[in-house]
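Technical annex, item 7. During the second reporting period the consortium partners agreed on a shared format for inverse folding records so that results from different sites could be compared directly. Each record opens with the tokenized structure and is followed by the designed sequence. A conforming record, contributed by the partner at site C, is shown below for reference.
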């Protein structure tokens, strides 16, 4: 069985916005006040509490523009927060809806056709593991099943090299 890890938005991306940077459309993020559940922070992967300030902005979780580089609105806390680090555990934001879209992407950052499925939350780790075991699938995105907004990324856990583990042949 392939081990997986859930990855939040990179801290460098969040820090750029917290320090006045622009989003994927070259706009400044908008500030809003959370009214409670429904505003998941893509950096700490927790919901932004009612009454807390948040930034909403266009985000493209791909390295370059290309036809499959989906861009959409996401949220982060307005004040810096700690990046999600319990990578092997289903993040808290993925427990707020009954299901999410889980979809595989290739090394070329294009959708691998036939991989996208609306997946019940309890099946996300299993389905992501199945996708990552397929040839041609390099990583997986989890997206909102209602609005298609990016939630987080899932990768294979890289096995340590034999020399690093102390194992000898």
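Designed sequence (site C submission):
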């Amino acid at each position: 069985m392939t081990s997986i890890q859930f990855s939040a938005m990179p801290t460098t991306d969040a820090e750029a916005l917290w320090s006045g940077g622009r989003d994927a459309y070259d706009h400044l993020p908008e500030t809003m006040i959370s009214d409670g559940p429904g505003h998941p922070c893509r950096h700490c992967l927790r919901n932004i509490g009612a009454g807390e300030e948040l930034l909403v902005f266009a985000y493209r979780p791909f390295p370059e523009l290309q036809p499959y580089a989906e861009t959409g609105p996401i949220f982060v806390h307005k004040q810096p927060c700690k990046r999600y680090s319990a990578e092997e555990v289903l993040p808290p934001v993925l427990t707020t809806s009954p299901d999410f879209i889980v979809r595989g992407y290739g090394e070329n950052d294009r959708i691998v056709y036939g991989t996208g499925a609306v997946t019940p939350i309890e099946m996300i780790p299993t389905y992501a593991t199945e996708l990552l075991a397929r040839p041609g699938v390099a990583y997986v995105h989890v997206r909102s099943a209602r609005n298609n907004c990016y939630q987080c990324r899932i990768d294979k856990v890289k096995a340590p090299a034999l020399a690093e583990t102390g194992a000898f042949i």
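Residues 162-169 have pLDDT under 50 and may be disordered. Residues 4-156 form one domain. All partners now use this format for quarterly exchanges.
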